[in-house]
Amino acid sequence: MKNSVESLDIWHIFVTVALSGSMNRAAAELGIDVASVSRKIARLEESLGYPLFDRTGTTAILTKEGRRCLSEVLPHISQLMQTVQNFERDEDEVAGPVRVFCAIGLIERMAVWLADFQERYPKAEVQILTMARFSDIRRQPFDLAFWPGPGPREGLEVTDLATTPTYVCASPAYLEQYGEIHEVRDLRNHRVMTNSALAYPPVLYGPDGAVAFPVNRKPAFRIDTMVGLRLAVMQGAGVAVGLPCFMVAPDFKTGRLVRILEPLQSYALHIRLFSKPNPSRKIRVLRDWIKARTREEFGHCPAWGPDLLTIEERAEASYW
């Protein structure tokens, strides 16, 4: 037995022969020929150094050593075969088209997750539909909607996935030209950019509570999407307040952006998953997949601030 996969196959054959009491019946159950069953049992016995069966005609009766082996391996083989059957059932049931609406700012993550999902379930036909407003999902059919902040709950199942903070950041080139920011009051001397969905002036939060935002004038400009805000700050247009951790963390690592005033944050984003009531098994499997990936990637960032959109009527705001 040269590899673990082959070993598992042989032990599966051993258990089937032991439970059926016949190599002929075991071969029929396994869908292989009797000679293959006999040959593999012989290899297993040779590897162990003792006989597992007393062969009499077409019957196969366990020896003392065979009974001991069966008692030890049966629970493990049974559990393994149940797992294999569950995987096979999933692959059969997780098939056909799946339509996922996704906020534009989350598309990079979702594309990777769904590519992995399709690798695991190759019969699934995945389609990602981007949206800037939650109302976009009403225009065409969907299976799941991946959205930060509140949305209409009537007629939908809502799963709270994770909370992610939003940061204050700027590009290295901007800070070099206009000066470093060491304290909150330094922001008076800088162009402050926010998302249009944020109340102005924005509030910063730390582990000990809120910190007043010292702004004497309106921000240089406000941008109605998070994606646009990120692009603007990367081009050195100003200091961005309220960019989500998951959007800018890669930029911090590469040095394209710098987080400032740490550990202060702006509002928090609550990531939610919306689905229609009583979803099919296919959709439940995908929902659990997205839930696990979201919590794995977003669940480690503590957030100090309240929800970005705590007022329900703001749910239609286009902030991605």
Which keywords apply here?
320 residues; alpha/beta; Arc Repressor Mutant, subunit A; D-Maltodextrin-Binding Protein, domain 2; 3 domains; two-stranded antiparallel sheet; 22% strand; disordered N terminus
Total domains: 3
User: Quick one: CATH class of the largest domain?
Assistant: Alpha Beta
Class by alpha and beta content: alpha/beta
Shape: elongated
Give the amount of beta strand, in percent.
15-25%
- The number of strands is 13
Report the CATH topology name of the largest domain.
D-Maltodextrin-Binding Protein, domain 2
Gyration radius, in Å: 29 Å
Order of helices and strands: HHHEEHEHEEEHEEEEHEHEEH
Give the uncertain stretches in residue-range form.
1-5, 309-320
Mean pLDDT: 79
Query: Helical amount among residues, as a percent range?
Result: 40-55%
> Which homologous superfamily in CATH is the superfamily of the largest domain?
Periplasmic binding protein-like II
Q: What's the N-to-C terminus distance?
A: 56 Å
Reported CATH architecture of the largest domain:
3-Layer(aba) Sandwich
Oligomer: single chain
Number of helices: 9
